[in-house]
Amino acid sequence: MLDSRMIAPPFDCQACGACCSYSPTWPRFSTEAEADLDRIPEKFVAADLSGMRCDGARCSALVGRVGSATSCAIYALRPQVCRACVPGGDDCLMARRAFGLDDTAVTPQGNAVCEA
Asked: Residue 41, class by beta-carbon neighbours within 10 Å (0-12 exposed, 13-18 middle, 19+ buried)?
């Protein structure tokens, strides 16, 4: 039988946001259908239409303070590249390390979840 104390809790994306602030070349569109891309508000799309608009390395749709409290202004409409960043996965951990955030999972605050 598996001891529930041995299972690490999920990462709390709403207390992180590192993946959304890691690189201006990361939030690029790749497999999205044109209809899905058309639903993303223009103010969040890069001028060359290649991906999300970034302010420096930070996605313009990210709201809040990295490592503290964050959210995505277009969560329901976010592109595939954002959905593909799995909490606790290699990309997630790489971004967390770049911000000096712990690699261990944290307990979600409230009803916070990060689903692909």
From this structure: exposed
To the question of pTM greater than 0.90 for the whole model, the response is no
Q: Which amino acid is at 103?
A: D
pLDDT in tens, 11-47: 788 999 999 999 988 878 988 999 999 999 999 999 9
Amino acid 46 reads A
Structural domain spans, the chain: 21-98
Task: Give tens-digit pLDDT for 92-101.
Answer: 999 999 999 9
- For residue 13, is it left (φ>0), alpha (ψ between -120 and 50) or beta? alpha
Cα–Cα distance, 111 to 32 (Å, whole number):
28
Structure tokens at 48: 């060359």
